[in-house]
Amino acid sequence: MTMTTRRDFPVLETERLVLRQLRAEDAGELFAYFSLDEVTAYYDLDSFAEPAQAAGLIASWQRRFDRGEGIRWGITLRGDDRVIGTCGFHEWSKAHYKAEVGYELAPAYWRQGLMTEALAAIIPYGFEALGLNRIEAFIDPDNDSSRRLLEKSGLREEGHMRDYYYEKGRFVDAVLFACLKRTHAGKTKV
């Protein structure tokens, strides 16, 4: 993995991926997959109905980055600048040296190990460059794909919270996964 910075936004490169800053012109790609119910099934957003929603999401992620509250990368394949997903950190608590990791990928790219590769780049970045001590993820108990991804990425299940979120008109449970800086080194299985 190599790291470069463009206008203070880190660009991370892996064997197959380039993780880069999202741009307004990426809204079309985000809309294409955020409009699919299979993508938003376990997401805290309803499926998008219009492209302006994708543009708004990109702008929201950029504001969080500008304020130092989080970072969200656009995931692209090497040699193809089209965004096929995103990943990053939110709910960044600098006082407690922790943040939540989040991600999604267009269905055409599922089950190819791409998100495992992306997390293998951003998790060390979180520990090393952002100074995190703890990285968390909250997932729906039924989301087996996310469970496998997090386990492969070195996060461990820490608990099941009942009715933890109110999403899409109902209360939903959440399973907490986490990893610590001192125990994570070398855990990701790409």
Would you mind describing this structure in some detail?
The protein is of the alpha+beta class. It has a domain of 132 residues: Aminopeptidase (3-Layer(aba) Sandwich), CATH 3.40.630.30. A nine-stranded mixed beta sheet has the order 1-2-3-4-5-6-7-9-8, sandwiched between helices. The longest helix is centred in the N-terminal third of the chain and has 16 residues. The chain is globular and about 40 Å long. The N terminus is likely disordered. It holds the Pfam family Acetyltransf_3. InterPro entries: Acyl_CoA_acyltransferase, GNAT_dom, N-acetyltransferase. It comes from Paenibacillus artemisiicola. This is GNAT family N-acetyltransferase.
Note the main attributes of this structure.
190 residues; alpha+beta; Aminopeptidase; nine-stranded mixed sheet; 9 strands; 29% helix; disordered N terminus
Strand order of the main beta sheet, please? 1-2-3-4-5-6-7-9-8
Q: What is the third-level CATH name, the topology of the domain at 2-133?
A: Aminopeptidase
Gross morphology is globular
Helix- and strand-based class? alpha+beta
